[in-house]
Amino acid sequence: MRPGVAARLPAAEAVAIVLNEGASLDDALRVVLARVATELAPTVRSLSYGAIRGFFRHAKLLGELLSRPAGRLEPLVRALLSVALYELEDRRSPDYAVVDAAVEVARAGANARAAGLVNALLRRYLRERARLDAALARDPAARFASPAWLAARLRADWPEHASQVMAALDTQAPMWLRVDARRTTGEAYAASLREAGLGARAEPRVPYAVLLDAPCDVQALPGFAAGLASVQDLGAQCVAFALDLQPGQRVLDACAAPGGKTALIAERQSALHQILALDADAARLERVRDNLRRGQLAAQTLAADAGAPANWWDGAPFDRILVDAPCSALGVIRRHPDIRLRRSAADLEKMPRVQERLLRAGWSMLASGGRLVYSTCTFTHAENRGVLARFLSEVTDADPVPPASWPDRPDIGVADPYGWQILPGEAGADGFYYAALKKR
Ligand SMILES: C[S@@+](CC[C@H](N)C(=O)[O-])C[C@H]1O[C@@H](n2cnc3c(N)ncnc32)[C@H](O)[C@@H]1O
User: Fold this and answer.
1) pLDDT bucket at 69, cuts 50 / 70 / 90
2) Does residue 146 fall inside a structural domain?
3) Is the CB of residue 162 below 6 angstroms from any atom belonging to ligand 1?
């Protein structure tokens, strides 16, 4: 196989698996990379991520260039066009080389007719680029590769921030680290990273957060194997401020896997009486155990449905409960751009019922005077303030704990009726919502 084809064909195949099967891009890449030479894997990964990231922008471009809807193209050809358009946008390879390689890939993976179409479309794109870019500039949703349902949700929920959030979601997420504050500080760890040749800075508002200048392999991080640092977005790290952990408390992490927040809790307060890390997904719970082992942290783990305490709870109330609920995950689109292809408006409608069930069950296990923190990595009002509003209308013993009273809360995000919303891109963080409720 010619070098131009060797990485581009598997990249297009991974994208086509996402289109055909609704698989996640990471799962699709696992399938495809199993038959690709190891040294090509980073290129396959970056081409397929770039193609998926720009998918809805490319759909708009193809709509301008094609006489029929782009959705009617054979998935592999549609995927290949997004790989090539991403490369042309990225401008790291000469235009002619991108077009030639795409035509060759079309011939190798599809057929001669597809190769002709790919050739004609990409050449026309290059000829009409100025007109096409002007069309994109007039349409922020298309420009920032947002599907219509996402743009509509943002305009409805965050009218003043919609374009800014769409732009943020169209970027690549930075790599944030959480350092184990029992053993070091963000400042000290960032200095050790710089000594190791890795550019980094500590985030002054969250003393255990460190931002790397560029993503790197975790094995290159000093002390990673010993749990000195862990990969965790800045937004997720902020949940600790709402929990206000105190010595001797019993803590339930109700939706724990893969355990980022369980480890954060254990690091933030080493004198807790107990941490119970629960998750419905037994396989994902294994990752919680791995994270705890690496960080030399103690917590019990249990595979169980947090919404059905009767099946597993011993009846001893918890002082702190974190419900880091399953959600639409729109706040982490920068990291998982395939979310834009795999979710729909209908999916968003289903989430609040799931979240409310977990919130109600969590509340039944909370001690009087205890605190429940509800969090999501999304920004839809229905999944955040809407879930809390409905819950608060059902119970008589819950009081929202105003974010202004959370000790040391960093000023990152905006106040929401019951909690605090970090919108994607703010301070370099992913989107994250968190609110605390106190039981009378
Ligand atoms: C947003 S993720 C949690 C991320 C995790 N807290 C962290 O910081 O690493 C949501 C988790 O909820 C789990 N989950 C979904 N439904 C659940 C249920 N009924 N009971 C317990 N866990 C559930 C999923 O398996 C998933 O691991």
Assistant:
1) confident
2) no
3) no
- The alpha carbon of 315 and the centre of ligand 1 are apart by a number of angstroms equal to 21
- Which among 362, 374, 369 has a CA at the least distance from the CA of 319? 369
User: pLDDT tens, 250-270?
Assistant: 999 999 999 999 999 999 999
Indicate the residue type of 288: V
Tell me the three state secondary structure of residue 339. helix
Calculate the dihedral angle through the C-alpha atoms of 293, 297, 299, 305, rounding to the nearest 10 degrees: -60
| Distance separating alpha carbons of residues 357 and 368, to the nearest angstrom | 20
For the question of whether the overall pTM of this predicted structure is more than 0.90, the answer is: yes
126 in a structural domain: yes
Shared domain check, 250 and 210: no
Decide: 278 in ligand 1 pocket, CB within 6 A: yes
Q: 122 and 10: one domain? A: yes
Q: Is residue 306 lining ligand 1, measured as CB closer than 6 Å?
A: yes
Q: Residue 225 and residue 161: Cα distance in Å, rounded?
A: 40
Residues near 41 by beta carbon (within 8 Å), at least 6 away in sequence: 33
Contact between 142 and 60 (Cβ < 8 Å):
yes
Annotation marks residue 255 as catalytic: no
Pick the catalytic residue from 238, 255, 327, 377: 377
Q: Report how many domains make up the chain.
A: 3
Q: Are 292 and 338 part of one and the same domain?
A: yes
The amino acid sitting at 240 is A
Distance from the alpha carbon of residue 325 to the mean position of ligand 1, in angstroms: 6
> Which residues span the domain enclosing 199?
176-231
| Domain end point (choices 138, 168, 188) | 138
Widest pairwise Cα distance in the chain: 71
Is-contact 173 426, C-beta < 8 A?
no
**What integer pLDDT is reported at residue 1 of this predicted model?**
57
Q: Is residue 169 part of a domain?
A: no
